[in-house]
């Protein structure tokens, strides 16, 4: 089982928290340092200085490189295999990754088309073939690395570490979901829409955590997260989002906190969980999400 398998490794439990807490602390420090600063204005200044692609690379590259850092930490410092950080199966199930990626990509495209044809006045055509092609090449390399880093950090290393020390399933799920959401608190969207958008970020973290625990691995979460960020960045940009890109469309509407936040969290994500549960025959929801864990290790904090 995904959470229980950490008992096979002998690393001191404190090692499971050094990397996640350091990263969260860095995010918190940057947020405090930027308090009172208009992040949208800073982002525009960066774009004016190095261009859209340059700003995108500067923002996402540290997270993209982070995937290699956490793999190194887990393998050589914790002495844990990357496979065990990824899945409880005998090998990584790439079909699960591609299924989740394809499913959410199609849904994202469909919802974007629906929004475009329902309220065309909210969008302008932003497509420039040359600029889009260059951005596409940058995005397909960096974004999956960035999203994988976040999954391996929160739903992988941090989730397993919390399970190890709390002997619980629910506590790690809630803590990692909340901290995943709070990690986005410095995004320009928060300044534009308000803290209510944290409902979406934390709700997404909870959805991805449930995916990971119920499916006994990161594969579905890896596919979904990559599709969400990659397809979203290629399709639509806006002047008030963290990812400002050479996308196909540009959203020129005034953002609001309402249906766009509640609909995914309360409707779409539960339906996706139901679909995945049917496809992969999940059972014992209560036990797997809230039941105790039997993990006994010799190493102590």
From TrEMBL:
GO terms for MF: metallopeptidase activity
Xref: InterPro entries: Rce1/LyrA-like_dom
Transmembrane segments: 14-34, 54-76, 97-117, 132-149, 170-187, 193-213, 220-241, 261-280
Keyword vocabulary terms for this entry: Hydrolase, Membrane, Metalloprotease, Protease, Transmembrane, Transmembrane helix
Any matching Pfam family: Rce1-like
Transcription regulation is among the record's keywords: no
Keyword Zinc-finger: no
Domain CAAX prenyl protease 2/Lysostaphin resistance protein A-like: 131-231
PANTHER family: MEMBRANE-ASSOCIATED PROTEASE-RELATED (PTHR39430), PROTEASE (PTHR39430:SF1)
Protein name per Swiss-Prot or TrEMBL: CPBP family intramembrane metalloprotease
Organism per entry: Flavobacterium sediminilitoris
């Amino acid at each position: 089982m995904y959470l229980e398998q950490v008992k096979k490794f002998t690393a001191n439990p404190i090692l499971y928290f050094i990397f996640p807490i350091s990263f969260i602390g860095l995010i918190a420090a940057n947020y405090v340092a930027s308090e009172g600063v208009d992040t949208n204005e800073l982002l525009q200044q960066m774009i004016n200085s190095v261009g859209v692609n340059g700003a995108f690379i500067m923002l996402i590259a540290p997270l993209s490189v982070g995937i290699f850092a956490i793999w190194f930490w887990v393998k050589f410092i914790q002495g844990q295999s990357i496979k065990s950080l990824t899945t409880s199966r005998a090998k990584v199930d790439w079909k699960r990754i591609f299924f989740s990626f394809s499913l959410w990509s199609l849904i994202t495209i469909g919802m974007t088309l629906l929004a475009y044809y329902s309220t065309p006045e909210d969008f302008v055509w932003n497509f420039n073939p040359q600029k889009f092609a260059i951005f596409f090449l940058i995005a397909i390399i960096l974004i999956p690395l960035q999203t994988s880093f976040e999954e391996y950090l929160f739903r992988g290393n941090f989730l397993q570490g919390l399970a190890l020390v709390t002997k619980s399933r629910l506590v790690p799920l809630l803590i990692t979901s909340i901290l995943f959401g709070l990690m986005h608190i410095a995004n320009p969207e928060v300044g534009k829409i308000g803290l209510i958008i944290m409902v979406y970020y934390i709700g997404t973290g909870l959805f991805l955590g449930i995916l990971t625990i119920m499916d006994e691995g990161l594969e579905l979460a890896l596919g979904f997260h990559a599709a969400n960020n990659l397809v979203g960045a290629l399709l639509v940009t806006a002047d008030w989002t963290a990812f400002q890109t050479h996308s196909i469309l540009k959203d020129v509407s005034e953002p609001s906190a309402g249906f766009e936040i509640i609909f995914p969290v309360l409707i779409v994500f539960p339906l996706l969980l139901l679909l995945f549960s049917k496809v992969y025959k999940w059972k014992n929801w209560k036990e797997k999400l809230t039941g105790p864990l039997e993990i006994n290790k010799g190493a102590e904090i």
